[in-house]
Write a structure and sequence with these properties.
Largest sheet: 5 strands, mixed
CATH architecture: Sandwich
Distance between the termini: 20 Å
CATH topology: Immunoglobulin-like
Bound molecules: calcium ion
CATH superfamily: Lamin Tail domain
Oligomer: single chain
Structural class: mainly beta
Helix content: under 10%
Order of helices and strands: EEEEEEEEEEE
Number of strands: 11
Number of helices: 0
Number of domains: 1
Length: 154
């Protein structure tokens, strides 16, 4: 099981910066699908209008196309996003699964990504200080990223 704990200085949040974690390690089932980035704490106050900026990036790091049929993203408390059954990623391709609804305009060009899926929630999902996101396909865990900004460094 992969576990990443991100430790940050709590005062940084007051500066209005967004928080994210970039993960890089082999996936746990050899499918090539990995969580490669999580933006769990967006810049500014959490509102329904910026919930789309909260996002999880999944990439196919394998050499063959990977279907995400039957795949889910789940937070620590069990809120679950289900990928569309027809969705797949070519080798090297990635998708951002955004918590909120698609904005009419995206001036920030968030992540500059052409491929986004929207959970269409009206509220933010992932804890701004600690939480986790788990990628499962067909009931098997492929990847997990956790963060805890208040963790004490070992
Ligand atoms: Ca959040």
């Amino acid at each position: 099981m992969k576990k990443i704990v991100l430790t940050l200085v709590g005062g940084i949040a007051a500066l209005g910066l967004s928080f994210g974690v970039t993960a890089a390690s082999a996936d746990e089932q050899g499918t090539g699908l990995q969580i490669v980035r999580v933006d769990y704490n967006v810049k500014g106050v959490d509102t329904s209008a910026n919930a789309y900026q909260e996002s999880v990036r999944v990439q196919n790091k394998g050499a063959t196309p990977a279907s995400l049929a039957g795949c889910t993203l789940e937070d620590l408390t069990g809120h679950t996003y289900h990928f569309p059954a027809s969705f797949s990623l070519a080798p090297g391709a990635y998708v951002n699964v955004r918590t909120g609804k698609s904005p009419s305009t995206d001036p920030a060009n968030w992540w500059n990504s052409p491929v986004n899926l929207y959970w269409n929630r009206t509220s933010h999902m992932y804890g701004n200080s600690s939480d986790s996101v788990t990628l499962e396909c067909g009931g098997s865990r492929l990847d997990r990223v956790a963060w805890n900004d208040f963790a004490i460094r070992p």
